[in-house]
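Field reference: "sequence" (input) and "structure" (output). Example, Manganese transporter:
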Amino acid sequence: MNTSSALIKYPSWLSSSQFRLAYKRLILPIALIALIASSTTREITVTTLSDAFWAVSCYVAFTLAIYHYLSSYMSKGNALVKLYARSRTHQVFFASLLGALPGCGGAIVVTTQFISGRVGFGAIVAVLTSTMGDAAFLLLASKPDVGFSVILLGIAVGCLSGWVVNKFHADDFLRPKVSDSDDVAVCSGEVEIQRLNTNTIEKKAINLQGIFWKLLLIPAIAIAALGSFQVDINELFSLPSMTIEWLGTGLILLSMFLWSLTKELKDYQSTVSEDQKYSGSHPIQKAAQDTNFVTAWVIVAFLFFELTTFFAEIDISQLVSGWGMWMPLVGLAVGILPGCGPQILITSLYISGTVPLSTQLANSISNDGDALFPAIALAPKAALVATLYSVIPAFFVGYGYYFLFE
């Protein structure tokens, strides 16, 4: 028998991909457990994770729940979408309003409407300028006064940008020729899919995320509110020292473990974009999915700050402040990146006091969120030019605030 020509048959389950890590998000909860297990980093990790859960996640979940409940009662006809199609001036104004909605749904509405020929190029510049993506939820939950001010500023700058662009470009500038079938289904200002093509593990994890926040939202926001008023929860309930901190750490680990199993990361877009949501899901379910996505990026930002400070024995706030006039440019550069994840990092650093408000403002104006992905896929030239146009007001707003107030 010629052994060189013999075929060796392996079982179907034994393949080159058997050791592939399908759910790469698991790296985050595993890394967190490793940091807690180490006596060197245990205290700082527990404190950071507890703060991330009680001071950020709970408020983000509460804000998102209100938002999704209100969205569920809104008209399914998208009245704003119909209104802004009447004139170029109205298009820009309503596009800015849609972009200012927290999340990426409103911006994706305008982006896909431009691609299908229903609105002009000025509208897409306006919406990309005014949108903050999911970072808006984080800013509203943590610093509502600043959050609303930034949103209003985004609307004003978006309108001005769109109207200026309309003076120089026709509505069909850089618009590709596509059919209406390429448009995205939108409901109540939020892009959703009619059916989730997920496996059993992902479906269970998604459902458990919803159950997690449905059971915990009210008691968690109550504890978070007490903590915001400087009430010592451990002392109030006669609990042993660090009990509430360890509870927050355990809950955030559980939420991150569930989040890690809801989506397989395949590329940059799947990494930095929020998870898709089923159009018929309960508002709490939608809030849970968005909350855990935001929380994951907040954890990365917070731990990066705390661990760098701890091991390098430096104050990052003072180090970064030494960059002075370069800081708005940092926020602007990160804002150019598609997706909500990098923008949440900047907002997290602003909330922690690491970067100044000028950096946050430059990032908020240049930030296009997830809306840039459908634009890049269907109209890459228009997406590139619109993004570059949004950089111009971001530069002036960021540096204007820096020189005037910082």
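Residues 42-73 form the longest helix (32 residues).
Confidence is low (pLDDT under 50) at residues 1-8, 10-19, 179-191.
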